[in-house]
Amino acid sequence: MQTHPDYPQHLAELPHNFIDGVGQTGAGKVRTLRDPATYQVIVELADADRSQVAQAVSSAGHALPVWSDTAPAIRARVLFRLAGLIEAKAGELASVEALNVGKPIGQAKRDVQRAADYFRFYAGCCDKLQGETIPLGPDQTALTVLEPIGVTAHILPWNYPVSTLARGAGPALAVGATMVAKPSESTPLSAIMLAQLGLEAGLPRGAFNVICGPGEIGEALASDNTVAHVTFTGSTATGRKIMQSASKPIAGTTLELGGKSPVVVLADADLDAAADGVVRGIFFNAGQVCAAGARLICARSIHDALVKKVVAKAEALTIGHPLDNPDLGPLISAQHLARVEGFVDRAKSEGLTCAVGGHRACPDGLTQGAFYAPTVFTNVPAHSEIAQQEVFGPVLITQICDTVEQALDLANGTAFGLVAGVYTADITHAMQFARKVEAGQVFINGFLQGGDTVPFGGVKESGIGREKGLAGLAAYSAAKSIIINHRDAS
Ligand code: NAD
Known about the structure:
It is a single chain. With 490 residues, the chain is of the alpha/beta class. The chain folds into two domains: 11-257 and 463-479, Aldehyde Dehydrogenase, Chain A, domain 1, CATH 3.40.605.10; 262-451, Aldehyde Dehydrogenase, Chain A, domain 2. It has 14 helices and 20 strands. The chain has helices spanning 50-68, 72-88, 90-101, 105-123, 161-175, 189-201, 215-222, 236-246, 271-283, 300-316, 334-349, 385-388, 404-411, 427-436; strands spanning 17-19, 22-24, 30-34, 41-46, 133-135, 140-148, 151-155, 178-182, 208-210, 227-233, 252-256, 261-265, 293-299, 353-356, 375-378, 395-401, 419-423, 441-444, 463-464, 477-485. A seven-stranded mixed β-sheet has the order 14-15-16-13-12-17-18, with helices on both faces. It has a six-stranded mixed β-sheet with strand order 9-8-7-10-11-19, with helices on both faces. A three-stranded antiparallel β-sheet has the order 5-6-20, with no helix packed on it. Helix 14 (427-436) links the parallel strand 17 and strand 18 (441-444). Helix 2 (72-88) runs antiparallel to helix 5 and helix 13 runs parallel beside helix 14. Bound molecules: nicotinamide-adenine-dinucleotide. Residues 155-160, 182, 184-185, 214-215, 218-219, 222, 233-235, 238, 241-242, 245, 256-259, 290, 390, 392, 418, 458, 463 line the site of nicotinamide-adenine-dinucleotide.
C-alpha cells in the first residue's frame, strides 16, 4: 500500500518516554502504533515499566521546589515561550496528531492551536494568583497563601491528546506544581513532543514528565504516594478505578468522564441552525467527543422535517484519510470500530429505525481502515441501550417530546450529565431548560460554542471538578492560612 505523501517524518526518532528532561526507551512491552485509516504501522514504542513510573514521579518531586520557587513572572515567561514553540511546530504536531488519532488534519491543527492557547491563557494567570486577608479584629490578622499542590498526575484519553494534555498541564505548571503525564497507550506521540518543547521553553528538568503505557501504568501513577492530585480524562468505568487508586496517597481528583449529551429542539426553533448544530455536535471527530450531542430530543411537530435536514447533511459529509482533511476520518482502531458496530447491530435487532448509515464506510482507495458511516436512529425509546450508553462514534438517536417538561425528563434520563443544548426562540423556555437540566455546561441556540476559557466538566457519572478557564486553576493549589497574633501584651 502507498504511504500518504504528507506522512510526518522522523517519528522513529521520537523518545518513548520523557523522564527528568531526558528521552528514555521504555523498559516495558513494545507497542505498535498504526494509522487507523490504513492499519499501516506508524512507529513502534516501548512502554514504561513500574520502576520508570516511580522515576518520573520522583523527578517531578525533585523539580517541585525549583519550579514552585521560580518567580511567577518568570514562570509566565516560560509558559508564554512554550505556547510560541507549539505554534512554531504546529504543522508537524498536527500531522502527527492526525495520523495517530485518525483525526482530519484541519481539526488536528485546531487542537494544536488550542494547546498553545491553553498555555498562553494560563501563562497570563501566573502572576495574578493571590491569597486573601480575613478580618479577625484588632489583635490578629489572618491571610492565605496559595501553594502549589505538589506533584500532579495527568492520565489522558485518545480522542484529543494534545489539547487535553495542555488543558491540565497549563494550570498545573502556572501555579508552580510539577507533573507526570500518561497519555493513552494508543496516542502518546504529541505528549512526548510537548514535553520536549517544555524543556526547550525553559521548564526545569523533571517539571514535565511523560510516561507511556497501558492502564496498569496509569494505575501505578495514580496510586504513587508522592502524587498529590490526579487529573483524569477518560471513561466513567476507569474514573471509578482512578478514585480508588488516588485514595492510597489521599490525592485529589479531577474526573472528566463520558457523556450522552442531549440537544433539545423546540417547535419554534430555527431549524436550519439546529440541523447545523446537531450534525456538527455528533459527527465532529467522528463522534469520538465526550461532549458529543448524541441524543436529539425534538418537538413532535418538527421532528420529521428536522430529521430530513439532518439526514441530508449527514449524507453530504465526506469520509477519507485524515491527511486529506475530510469531514470524518476513521475511528481510533479496529477494536473501537467493532464496539460501535456492536451498538448499532443491537439497536437494529431491537427493531429501531435507522434513517441513514448503520454500516461501515469504505472511502475511495481505502478498502481497509476503521471507517464508520454517519448514522441516525429515529424515535428511540428512552430505555434502549443506544439511548443510555455512550457509543463514542458517529451515531445519533432522536427522541420525541410534546412539552418542555418532557424534554427535560428525557434530557435528564441517563446516568450522565456533561453538556446539553437547547434550540428555541423563547428565552423563558431556554432558561427553564438551562436551569433544570443536569449538566455542567448548557448551550442555548448553538452547540459546543464558548471555547476554552469557559469552565467545563460534568455532574453525575460525567465527573467531578472543572477544567478550562480560571476554574481550571483551583485543583492545583491549596490555600495555607497564616494567623498572626499582634496583640500588644504590654
Ligand atoms: P479509558 O478510560 O479507556 O482510558 C483513559 C486513560 O486511562 C488511558 O490513558 C488509559 O491507559 C488509562 N487507564 C485505563 N485503565 C486505567 C486504570 N485502571 N488506572 C489508571 N489509568 C487507567 O478512556 P478512552 O477510551 O481513552 O477515552 C474515551 C473516554 O474518555 C470516553 O468515555 C469519553 O467520553 C471520555 N472523555 C471525556 C472527556 C471529558 O472532558 N469529559 C474528554 C475526552 C474523552
